[in-house]
Design goal:
327 residues; alpha/beta; Rossmann fold; UDP-galactose 4-epimerase, domain 1; 2 domains; 7-stranded parallel beta sheet; two-stranded parallel ribbon; 13 strands; 17% strand
Length: 327
């Protein structure tokens, strides 16, 4: 029997790639998105319900109409700096929005949810690589908004029998290799598309935020994971959750760190053009190094990153950018 997944935020970056992956695996896919930060033309694998997870009528009506076996919840704001400047919208949209969604699921009898969480819930790492047992100590409202949701999911699991998987992403990157969807943010804040733009346009320099970190080349180190690897992990996690139930948490990263200087070198290598670079101060609270352990996901989901070499990530992101150059 064909399964159905309701994807909140399915018009966004990671959500749309997950929609494609679920559809390719034979699932019926329904997207619920208010299009405030998503893109209508990214919804290609099933119907779009234009609505907000904070709207109980829209949520319950969608759940009752489509009767999904699983909810994949991506709808959220995700800019760290914005969360510091305006925390109210993060707790309202991310945390309260998820509470409204969970209450709608309870009312409709939907009992399984995948949650798009974040490594930002760990805060400044105490050890590298970071595994799921690492203490969670967020240093910004974005991280707190996601960590609170994880606690909500634990409580809803115990009290109401809602099974969940929280997937803590490290640095999502790249684009669909077939070119159907890619990364689009307004404003763009992710390092790889910004570095690519600096290689394509001399008037758009890339700023290295900190050159005095305690790392081999002085720049921050991050764990970049291809968005298609993330999408495949969601599919595997959804299948596991429907079979086993329970409350689960997994890191999604590669175990490999890439410094900002190494990232710039990779963009130059792939784009065959040197990005224009300038140096700036560190951002407050930026850790020197964030690298995941994905051993638990490998052990329990049978998942490994397969497309997350930095050159391949940049190649797919560059091809997407060249097909859809900024206006």
């Amino acid at each position: 029997m064909t399964r159905t997944v309701l994807v909140t935020g399915g018009a966004g970056y990671v959500g749309s790639h997950c929609c494609k992956t679920f559809a390719r695996a034979g699932w019926n896919v329904v997207t619920l998105d208010n299009l405030s930060r998503g893109w209508r033309d990214a919804v290609r694998w099933g119907p779009l319900v234009e609505g907000d997870v904070r709207d109980p009528i829209a949520v319950r009506g969608t759940l009752e109409k489509y009767e999904p076996d699983l909810v994949a919840h991506f709808a959220a704001f995700a800019y760290v700096g914005e969360s510091v400047e305006n925390p109210a919208i993060y707790y309202e949209n991310n945390t309260a929005g998820t509470l409204a969604l969970l209450n709608g699921m309870r009312a409709a009898g939907c009992r399984h949810i995948l949650f798009s969480s974040t490594c930002a819930s760990y805060g400044v790492p105490q050890h590298i690589p970071i595994d799921e047992r690492h203490p969670q100590a967020p240093i910004n409202p974005y991280g707190w908004s996601k960590m609170i949701i994880e606690r909500m999911l634990e409580d809803f699991g115990r009290a109401y029998g809602i099974g969940s998987v929280s997937l803590r992403y490290f640095n999502a990157a790249g684009a669909d290799p077939e070119g159907e969807i890619g990364e689009r943010h307004e404003p763009e804040s992710h390092a790889i598309p910004l570095a690519i733009e600096a290689a394509r346009r001399a008037d758009q320099p890339f700023t290295i935020l900190g050159t005095d970190f305690p790392t081999p080349d002085g720049s921050a180190i991050r764990d970049y994971i291809h968005v298609n690897d993330l999408a495949r992990a969601h599919l595997l996690a959804g299948e596991m959750l429907l079979e086993r139930g329970g409350t689960h948490v997994f890191n999604l990263g590669t175990g490999v760190g890439t410094s900002v200087h190494e990232l710039i070198e990779a963009v130059e290598r792939v784009a065959r053009c040197k990005p224009v670079v300038r140096r700036g101060p560190r951002r407050a609270g930026d850790p020197a190094k964030l690298v995941a352990s994905f051993a638990k996901a490998e052990r329990e989901l049978g998942w490994q990153p397969q497309h997350s070499g930095i050159d391949f990530i940049i190649k797919t992101a560059l091809e997407w950018r060249d097909r859809h150059p900024p206006v």
